[in-house]
């Protein structure tokens, strides 16, 4: 089986001969090809070069356009200062007051360089490796994008004090995310990642009442457009993992705080889990041997529908040997454990 075949089989619970491996590479990939993180997220050609190098040098099974939080926010009109090695710094937020909700509008994906770049990068991936590797698109989830446009702290307060403000915004945000996902699917993405990091901050009751319905709507729309969905919520989602499983997402990423065995028990056998050893304490600061041990434990606890990766982004400064320890390439220490 090639990488794409085994990835699809793992997600769908079909026989496959190896656990897929899909680390989230961003700044680390940029540095691997001698470029800055800013180069990576502002230049689609650098992003494509970096991810193709990851597939070539580390044997990973998926390439994709995950880059930074601000692509869609830029399309809404927010402006940023971009340091060489860090995410952009907003010059101001779009939604300062309730009156600013009128600024939300359908997005022009071709008219914004950053959204256009993401679509073009997907097309380049599809042309280069789309037959052999999964191609991952990416959109921000409803509460994550609301937090990007409003500021995270005001967004959290809104859910408690003015939830209708979020609900009003979420209607446009979700529709724009769906249209952006459709453009990426048309360009060649077989899976769309939905990054809804702020969902881990709101608490179970508010998540179920306000966030979950919009995630379900977005995910159903992506499915209708013909792609699978990978839901990525950074942070500890142990208290909501059973609810997250009802979103309809094909793949649920687990950050390192969420025990894989507990997550599997909560979601049942029919959801593909993805994760989840600690990207800092284990991956960056550990040794190849301790990383291999952590990866083996994830695989042992996971059940059949499982994809291996660190709990979140591979941090800059992680030694090459540490990445190779769990990837299907020369230097892998868990080859026997990856085999099904």
Chart the SSEs and their pairings:
Layout: H1 3-12, H2 27-32, H3 37-42, H4 44-58, E1 62-64, H5 71-76, E2 80-81, E3 89-90, H6 113-129, E4 134-140, H7 142-150, H8 152-161, H9 163-187, E5 191-195, H10 204-225, E6 228-232, H11 241-244, E7 251-253, H12 260-267, E8 272-277, H13 279-284, H14 288-302, E9 306-310, H15 320-324, H16 335-338
Parallel strand pairs: 1-4, 4-5, 5-6, 6-7, 7-8, 8-9
Antiparallel strand pairs: 2-3
CATH topology: TIM Barrel
Topology, number of strands = 9
Major β-sheet, in short? 7 strands, parallel
The backbone outline, from C-alpha atoms, is globular
- Rg (CA only): 19 Å
Percentage beta strand: 5-15%
Q: What is the helical fraction, as a range of percent? A: 40-55%
Low-confidence stretches: none
Order of helices and strands: HHHHEHEEHEHHHEHEHEHEHHEHH
Structural class: alpha/beta
What is the CATH architecture term? Alpha-Beta Barrel
N-to-C span: 12 Å
Q: Give the rounded overall mean pLDDT.
A: 97
How many domains, as an integer?
1
Count of DSSP H/I helices: 16
User: What is the name of the CATH class?
Assistant: Alpha Beta
Query: What order do the strands of the largest sheet run in, or round the barrel if closed?
Result: 1-4-5-6-7-8-9
